[in-house]
Structures are given as C-alpha cells and as structure tokens.
Amino acid sequence: MLSLKGEQIYLRALEPKDLDFLYQLENDTAIWEISGTIKPYSKKVLQLYLENSHRDIYDVKQLRLCICNKDDHCIGLIDLFDFDPKNRRAGIGVVIANTENRNKGLGAEAISLLCNYAFTTLDLHQLYANILEGNDASIHLFEKLGFSKIGVKKEWIRTNSGFKNEIIFQKINSNVS
C-alpha cells in the first residue's frame, strides 16, 4: 500500500509476530491514562485479538495499524476508532512506544498517512482526537497537523492525581461534500 508509506515510517496491518510488542505496549501502565486501560491484558486475550484483527473496519468500527520504521521494527500503533460510516467520521489515536523514538516526526508522519487514507480511501468527512489537558506534546502535534480545538470535556478522565479535562480536536476534510 503505497498510500501508507512515508519517508521515515510505514503503516501495516497487525501480524501474529506483533504479540510480544502488543503485550508490552498494552501493559505499559505509563500509557494507561491515555488509552483508557484499567487492567493488564494476558497474552491469550491479545492473541485472540490478533486472530480477529483482519476483520473489516465496517464490521468492527476500528482499524489498528503498526507504525514501522525503515528497519521493519514496530515502534508504535495508530488507530481509527468509533468509525461511523453514516456520518463519515472516526476518532484517531497514536502511540509511539519508546521515548527515544518520540519527537522525531514519526508520529506526525503516521497521523498524516492515516488522515490521507481516511479521507481518500474511506471517504471520511472528519477525524477527531481526544487529548488530555497537559499532554502538550500531543496537543502541539495535532494542531501542527491541522486539527482544531473544538471543545473541552471537563473533569472527564479520572487519574491517580484527580480528574483531568479532555480536549477534543477535529480535522474536517475540505475536499469532500
């Protein structure tokens, strides 16, 4: 899929070989706050997830792709979720696993590739992202990529330090009616 290949990274479907990476990422408590996870995942549950990851976005309302570098190592995940074909919209989320791979433009390139895919191949009208207040790196990233702040859900996410606001960002595909 040439549309999912960039300068530094490419996006690909989940493979059985991704089990250990998925297990490590999904059980990283440092990202539970942004992922909505509240308990660890077993390898068995993740294996079942991988076995069903081939299902169509129109069926499961989600698309999860691996972000891979030029050395074919999976460095993160990017998702379309809450896919709504009638209203032609979906949420988008991204995580780069290791901090040494962050702030290098990899997340920006992955988001750009997935936005292009969503707007051209899936013919979506809009994408949105939910970002916790205080996650300045993600806020900057999505704003840089043309997402606009459209609202705040007050005290939306409960964390160990109390409730946090969640900011909603939106990008509308101006090339579609």
Sheet with the most strands, sense and barrel status:
7 strands, mixed
Shape: globular
Tell me the number of helical segments per DSSP (H or I, 4 or more residues long).
6
Q: How many β strands by DSSP?
A: 7
The CATH homologous superfamily is termed Gcn5-related N-acetyltransferase (GNAT)
**Structural class determined from secondary elements:** alpha+beta
Strand order of the largest sheet: 1-2-3-4-5-7-6
Question: Which bin fits the share of residues in helices?
Answer: 25-40%
Query: On the 0-100 scale, what is the average pLDDT?
Result: 91
CATH class: Alpha Beta
Q: The CATH topology, please?
A: Aminopeptidase
**SSE pattern:** EHHHHEEEHEHEE
Q: Measure the end-to-end span.
A: 26 Å
| Tally of separate domains | 1
- What is the architecture at the second tier of CATH? 3-Layer(aba) Sandwich
Strand percentage lies at: 25-35%
Low-confidence sequence ranges: none
Rg? 16 Å
GO molecular function: acyltransferase activity, transferring groups other than amino-acyl groups
Protein name: GNAT family N-acetyltransferase
Keywords: Transferase
